Amino acid sequence: MATSNANAVPHHIAIVMDGNGRWATRRFLPRIAGHRQGVGALNRCVQACIARGVAVLTVFAFSSENWNRPAEEVSGLLELLGLSLAREVPSLKANGVQLHFVGDRQRLSEKFKAGLAQAEAATAGNERLILNVCFNYGGRWDVAQAARKLSAEGLEITELALDRAMALAHVPDPDLLIRTGGEMRISNFLLWQAAYSELHFSDKLWPDFDDAALDAAIEVFRTRERRFGQTSAQLGSDGKNSTQKAA
Ligand code: IPE
Ligand code: IPE
Ligand code: MG
Known about the structure:
Layout: E1 12-16, H1 20-25, H2 31-52, E2 56-63, H3 71-94, E3 97-102, H4 110-123, E4 129-137, H5 139-152, H6 159-165, E5 176-179, E6 198-201, H7 211-223, H8 232-235
Parallel strand pairs: 1-2, 1-5, 2-4, 3-4, 5-6
Helix pairs in contact: 2-3, 3-4, 5-6
Bound molecules: 3-methylbut-3-enyl trihydrogen diphosphate (2 copies) and magnesium ion.
The site of magnesium ion (MG) has 2 residues, from loops.
């Protein structure tokens, strides 16, 4: 049942971290410099989410389609992820962050896969913030892999069964989905899970996305009426948003 919570903090925020390339190009820097700056923005955002009581943060770091970028940028991004893991995992661990990598690992090297698994294992006991990093992720991949899993097990394909087989089955659906960088599209992000997420598009390029921009997004979220198919009148007094799915 939806309830009024105009002061609510979204339980789960998802972000398409877009605009790194443009951030760099505007400064006459190589695109990878923007991606490096983007890691800093993610660190700040993790801290800000913890400070505000957000329970789950899911970020889009590399899409299934990003393999189509120039080889130099792809290898730069892979290298940056490896370096960031080594650099950031100790502080993520100390800050109570539980890290998950969400996406297709089949095409990744054994060494890379081991790095992801190690980072997950190192932070597995943490409970302050769940951070899902979507890497080699696509919403269509997720639906297809979930359906394949059910069919391999001979299970009936129902909404509930698919939901449970999805790569984000360990968290509830996002309440607020933010895309930075000014584009107003989903780009194959959480196609299944964003069914009832509130959408917010920020013109800020991801490296410039700061605490004030996060607060602005949360403020907008608080003004939204989440109806989940019901009418305003059914929601009760002032019909403001709820962080819960309708029963
Ligand atoms: C998002 O920034 C990060 C990744 C896709 C890896 P972009 O690299 O897409 O930046 P723009 O959109 O070109 O500015
Ligand atoms: C989406 O951004 C993917 C990530 C942020 C990782 P893109 O920059 O790849 O999306 P398009 O190409 O503009 O749709
Ligand atoms: Mg982009």
